[in-house]
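Work Package 3 (structural annotation) set out to generate three-dimensional models for the target panel prioritized at the project kickoff. During this period the team completed the workflow that converts sequence records into discrete structure tokens, so that structures can be stored uniformly alongside our sequence database. As a representative example, we reproduce one entry of 82 residues exactly as it appears in the project archive.
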Amino acid sequence: MSFQAVAKSTNRHSLVIGEITAAEAELAKHENPFIDGKGLYLISVDSEVEAGIGSVLAKFTSEDAAYELARFFRASGKMEAA
């Protein structure tokens, strides 16, 4: 499962749909035990954070759910070019 969609949220932040890193999973699992690093997640990434570690906002229940939000990003004109 290699899927990633990025949408500009603000000048500084982007919303990312995709897999998370081990570091992101480790930080997030303290707040929510359902975050295990497997599957697709919604992550907020701050462009001014050099480490590139994002904040996990949500875990998708399925790939279809992630694709639905990605389609919304595209339809709303928020999707960033790859």
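The longest helix spans residues 63-75.
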